[in-house]
Amino acid sequence: MNAPAPPKDNPVRGSRAKHPIALYLFLAVVLASIVGAVSGTFTKQLSCADLSKRTREWKEPKLAVWSYMGTRDGYENFAAQDRPDGVISTLISGNFKFFKVKESEIRLSRRFSLTEEPEKWTMLKWGPPGETPDCM
């Protein structure tokens, strides 16, 4: 015998959304943050000395991760990710901060064109208690 259909006001019915809008919004915001960083919208320009100071700053617990994103228009671009401040900041930016330094101020062993694809970034050994940028 067939099972009866759930009542129309049943909250379970239709709970599996065909289009997980929240997931799409989350991905769109994270992608926009990365694209904004790559385009320079959210990127803060620093001297190499200031960048070096920032690599020694972090929040507890020590989870700072620095990545080299590539070079564009005479600047080397970097991403820093520390522990999340909270759900909102993580949703908005993935808790990344983006910085750029003039090419002439910093020595890097390997350079490549700026990319917005985090999997192509080079993880750096900067941060607690690691190395600092090699400034000229």
Short description:
This protein is of the alpha+beta class and 136 residues long.
What's the SSE blueprint?
Blueprint: H1 21-39, E1 43-45, H2 48-55, E2 65-72, E3 75-81, H3 87-93, E4 96-102, E5 106-107, E6 122-124, E7 134-135
Parallel strand pairs: 1-4
Antiparallel strand pairs: 2-3, 2-6, 3-4, 5-7
Mean pLDDT over the full residue set? 75
What does the main sheet amount to? 5 strands, mixed
Q: Helical proportion?
A: 25-40%
Strand content is 15-25%
What is the chain-wise order of helices and strands? HEHEEHEEEE
The helix-and-strand class reads alpha+beta
What is the molecular shape? elongated
Instruction: Using the CA coordinates, give the radius of gyration.
Output: 21 Å
Strand ordering within the main sheet: 1-4-3-2-6
SS elements, strand count? 7
Report, as a whole number of angstroms, the end-to-end distance. 80 Å
- Helix tally? 3
Query: Which stretches are poorly predicted, pLDDT < 50 over at least 5 residues?
Result: 87-91
What can you see in these coordinates?
- With 136 residues, the chain is of the alpha+beta class.
- It has a domain of 93 residues.
- It contains three helices and seven strands, in the order H-E-H-E-E-H-E-E-E-E.
- The strands form two sheets. A five-stranded mixed sheet has the order 1-4-3-2-6.
- A hairpin with a 2-residue loop joins strand 2 and strand 3.
